[in-house]
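If you are new to this repository, start here. Below is one unmodified record pulled from the training split, so you can see the exact layout before writing a loader.
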Amino acid sequence: MRGKDFFIFANTLHNSEIEAARRSSVSRAYYALYHHVRECLLSSGIPVSIKPEEHERMTRYLKNSGIEKVKQVGEKMNDIRVKRNKADYELSDKSFNKMTCGLYCAMTENLLNELDSIDKGQLKRGLVDYAGSINEL
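And here is the target side for that same chain:
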């Protein structure tokens, strides 16, 4: 299984009449992006654990890669994570309508495509350079 498989599932949920399904679409979309970024880091030789603090660490890597497009992915990934937390933990939040959930799925798809459009060698260099600058390699 690949992380992007979560996105395929998320995309089937955001138009549901059931609020729990729409909330799950945001959560699954975030995790599609999370796993895709995690794979980028791992394939660059940067170890990534499954500890909760890795979410923040992964976005920090993207934001400090030295590549403007990747920095923007990191910033938006954090925004999606905030919404994912609300989807999972703030059950009184009434913002999980079809339009909002569709927007978060579309945003995630754009970020996945944006990451895929970056030259893999350039991305690896940016991530490795940052890892070296903070003594994590």
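Two things worth knowing about this chain: DSSP finds six helices and no strands in the chain. The two ends are 28 Å apart (CA to CA).
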